[in-house]
Amino acid sequence: MKNNPLSLLKSEFAKNSLTLVSSSFIGQAIALLIYPLITRLFSQSDLGLYATWLSIVDVLTILSTGKYEESVMLGRDKREAAATARLAMRVNTVFSLAAVAVVAVIFALGKADYTVFLIPPMIFFCGTTRVYEALFNYAKAFGQMAFSNIANSVAAAVAKLAAGFAHLTNGTLPAGSLVGQMVGNINYRIALHRLQLPKTTWAEAKEMASLRRNFPLFSMPKGFVNSFSYNLPFILLAFYFDNAYIGLFSLAMTCTFRPVSFFSGAFHSVLYKNFSVRYRENQPLIPKTNKFIALNALVFIPVFVLGGVFANNIIALLFGSQWTACTPYLLMVLPWIFISHLTSSLSFLPSIFSTQRTDMILNIVLFVLRLTALIIGIVYADFALAIALFAIVSAAMSLITLGWYYSLARRFDKTL
User: Fold this and answer.
1) How do the domains of the chain map onto residue ranges?
2) Calpha distance 132→294 (Å, rounded)
3) Can you give the three-state secondary structure of 216-283, one letter per residue?
4) How far apart are CA 46 and CA 171, in angstroms?
5) Which of 57, 113, 118, 251 is a good FRET partner for 358, with 20 to 30 A between their CA atoms?
6) Per-residue confidence of the chain (416 residues) as pLDDT tens digits?
């Protein structure tokens, strides 16, 4: 049948997706395979503090590149793509150096321990990795992207386990993540010459800054608000509840959101390239969108249902009975995570149609709703209530956003 979603499995999209998804699966498998050891080597409070540290890095990394790396895919040729990447790298370097000065002041004031100094280098390597990912995605070098993803996961796992077995548990989880990010980044840098990118000037980079100004003006604030609102439980609730609660919620998200986000990232990379080409060539988008949504529903919904039914037993078996207290949080977030996966995979559509302003407004609304949900939980001194309300408003807004993305594609198809 022409509209059979399974026909997508035979396409170039499927082959490229399989390459990235396979590496994502391997990388996530490595991370999850070591978690039964991590949960026995580190305490719930250790995981809570690590989750808060990682959340701060995630939020600041959004700002570090000005989101210019997202516009690399829109380059009409390699020269434009390379110039945009150069611009993103320069912005990332300046931001990371500024972060060093800020954390030095925070440490001097006695407001944080030494792990705060790991934040600027982590921001730098996360930012450069995003730029490299955009360049290699533009060049369809999906194999190298897969290899770097796996190298990152392996290096981080080895570093964390080595620290745990050596009983060096204070701040070593952040250090392990930094090691992994550096290794993945170095792999990209070594392979960069294979792309045969032209040498560009700073004048060309500044020209791209003007041409792609919607990305720092709208995509960056939208990404910042979205990342900050997602990480709110780890940052805000850490001031009002014990770190052990944050650690339990962190494990729930590790078992659900983290593996799914790898799939979302892989689909986003491949779909962005595919849809950008279809848009430039005036080809319809809705048929591909329908197939993507249908295929993901066929795969993910049964997996999520089974995972929810046996969640408590799985957690006890893998991580120890002391961690089964995270099961309620896991069940709360499952519906949101499925809808969010679809939305995240298609989140490039506002960039293609230059509707980033509306996208930013939707994310501001989401932030306000999430903040309100968490404040209610804080007022009632109920961590579970805060997480439940957080998941409900997140699922609702993800569904609304997905509907808007779909309407953008449909509106474009009607013009053909």
Assistant:
1) 1-10+213-416, 42-211
2) 31
3) HHHHHHHHHHHHHHHHHHHHCHHHCCCHHHHHHHHHHHHHCHHHHHHHHHHHHHHHHHHHHHHHHCCC
4) 8
5) 57
6) 445 555 554 555 555 556 555 666 677 778 778 889 999 999 899 999 999 999 999 999 999 999 989 888 878 888 888 899 899 999 999 999 999 999 999 888 877 778 889 999 999 999 999 999 888 888 877 777 888 888 898 999 999 999 888 887 777 899 999 999 999 999 999 988 888 888 888 888 888 888 888 888 888 887 888 889 889 999 999 889 999 999 999 999 988 887 788 788 778 877 887 888 888 888 999 998 999 899 888 988 998 899 889 999 989 998 888 899 999 999 999 999 999 999 999 998 988 888 878 888 888 899 999 999 999 999 999 999 999 999 999 999 999 999 999 999 999 999 98
What are the tokens at 389? 């309300």
Locate tokens 């983290």: which residue? 258
* Distance from chain centroid for Cα 403: 21
3-class DSSP string for 335-399 = HHHHHHHHHHHCCCHHHHCCCHHHHHHHHHHHHHHHHHHHHHHHHCCCHHHHHHHHHHHHHHHHH
Q: Give the integer Cα–Cα distance in Å for 265 and 267.
A: 6
